[in-house]
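The pair is set out directly below:
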Amino acid sequence: MLLIQKVDFMRNLILQIKDLKVYFDTDEGLIKAVDGVSFNVEKNSVVAIVGESGCGKSVTARSILQLLPTNAHIVDGELNFNLGDNKIIEIHKLDRNSREMRAIRGGEISIVFQDPMTFLNPVYTIGYQIYENIKEHLHYKYRNSIAKIHEILASVGISNPIQRSQQFPHELSGGMRQRSMIGMSLSANPKLIIADEPTTALDVTIQAQVLDLMKKIQNEKGMSVILITHDMGVVAEMADFVVVMYMGKIVEKASCQMIFNNPKHPYTIKLLESIPKLGRGRNQKLKPISGTTPNFTSLPTGCLFSPRCDFASSKCSNIPKEIEYSDNHFVSCWKYNEEIKEN
């Protein structure tokens, strides 16, 4: 499933997500968890997807690897992945259990989950679990993988890698388990890593170490990273480009610098106002986002953020179009639709 005609467009991209729609069949009805999401991931870049819990961040990311529950389906859109050598594969057309998908999952694209104890097998050593990925994608025998396993563990900052490789997950600290997960994700030399809330379960000091490690590895190996997070501090530390999601839709996307220095969508502005700022002292007042996220089975008409927005008007009863406010800075809000029209 190669798209040779798209090679020129994809030359500087590792991944193109175009109008992706992922729906869930539930007892309450159809849930449009991801509804028309489009963005690109450039080579050797970090794209952060941010938003409140339940906004569709993780579903978007897991769609890339076809790691969706059985009641979830990609109903429309494209997931085009650049394998290199003029080969673009259409992930959205692959069966989740196909040989082609298994070759991509863990090989070309890896994922780091937020809680390693949930995803590491408690009955196998760390070294053996790294070997399983090496065997699957690089086809090495175990005896030929031992040195590589030790090298991987050392590269992610684990001391005494020979000893640690022989230990079980419960024998390691939370930080070491997360480093081991990162090492496992690197073991088959992927082109893209998806990091799904990779520091949520760690204390602040270890969070900083893990983030520094991921940024260092990304720069050294020239990989791309999709970072899923609700922590804007992590975004500021890591991201080159930011995608802001709300209730399954993208409301704003731009460079990290633009999002922090010149946010446009009311939701993005409120996200930034709800976090503390360095240098303003302990008495600074944070502004919580009023209201709550709506139920997916009874969404408001038009702009989904309008019930919580300070700038909502009658126009917001219709769905706003995404417009390019400035170079590579996109926003979906009637306020800017009208502003662009006037200019």
Q: What stands out?
A: Confidence is low (pLDDT under 50) at residues 1-5. The first helix runs from residue 7 to 10.
